[in-house]
Specification:
Largest sheet: 7 strands, mixed
Number of strands: 7
Order of helices and strands: HEHEHEEHEHEHE
Number of helices: 6
Strand order of the largest sheet: 3-2-1-4-5-7-6
Helix content: 25-40%
Strand content: 15-25%
Structural class: alpha/beta
Length: 183
C-alpha cells in the first residue's frame, strides 16, 4: 500500500475536546513540529496532521502503535514517554492519555518532557479521571520541584460551553515551557 499524507475523513473528532484543542493550537505557529505522546490508536495524530502540523508520534504499547501507524500511514515510535528524546526541540506536545499522577514518577517525567520543548512551547494533557491530582496540586508540584514549566490558562473556554464540556475541560491541563532549563 503506498504511503499517503491524506487524512481519512471518516474519523469523527471528539467534540467535547474542541475547546481544549483550540487553546492548544492557538499557541502554535502554522507547520509547527509537534510530539503526540501516548498517541494510542491515533485519533489525535490524525487531528494534528489535518491541522497542518508536522507530527512525531510515540506510543509505549506496540499494538496501539501498529494500529495508529497502519490507520494513518505514518510511522509511530514504540517508546515510553520517559525514554523519548529528540535532537531538535518540539514546538508543542499533545498527550492523548493522562500521565501517572504519582509524584515520584510525575516529576521526572515532566522534567523530561520540558527538555523536549522549545522555550514558551505548550504541553497539553488530560488529568487522570480518578481525580488523584488537581490543577492546583499540579501547579504546586511544578513550582516546588523546579520544573521549567508553568501552568497556562485555557483561554479557549467560553461562556457558551455546556456544563458537561466544562466539567471535561477541567480534566485537561496546559503547561508552558519556561525560558530556562530545569535544574
Amino acid at each position: 500500500m503506498p504511503h499517503s499524507d491524506a487524512i481519512p475523513a471518516s474519523l469523527p473528532l471528539n467534540d467535547q475536546h474542541a475547546h481544549v484543542r483550540a487553546a492548544f493550537v492557538a499557541r502554535l505557529k502554522p507547520g509547527a513540529h509537534l510530539l503526540n505522546g501516548q498517541c494510542a490508536a491515533g485519533e489525535d495524530l490524525c487531528w494534528l496532521r489535518a491541522e497542518g502540523y508536522v507530527v512525531t508520534a510515540c506510543e509505549a504499547v506496540l499494538a496501539d502503535a501498529k494500529v495508529a501507524s497502519q490507520q494513518f500511514g505514518q510511522a509511530v515510535r514504540v517508546c515510553p514517554l520517559a525514554k523519548m528524546h529528540s535532537v531538535l526541540p518540539y514546538d508543542g506536545i499533545w498527550l492523548s492519555r493522562p500521565l501517572d499522577s504519582e509524584e515520584a514518577t510525575l516529576v521526572p517525567l515532566l522534567q523530561q518532557l520540558a527538555t523536549l520543548l522549545n522555550a514558551g512551547a505548550p504541553i497539553c494533557f488530560p488529568l487522570p479521571p480518578s481525580g488523584k491530582i488537581s490543577h492546583a496540586q499540579l501547579q504546586q508540584l511544578v513550582t516546588t520541584s523546579g520544573i521549567a514549566l508553568q501552568l497556562a490558562p485555557m483561554e479557549a473556554l467560553s461562556a457558551n460551553t455546556s456544563d458537561s464540556a466544562s466539567q471535561h475541560a477541567s480534566q485537561y491541563v496546559m503547561l508552558l515551557r519556561g525560558d530556562h532549563q530545569a535544574s
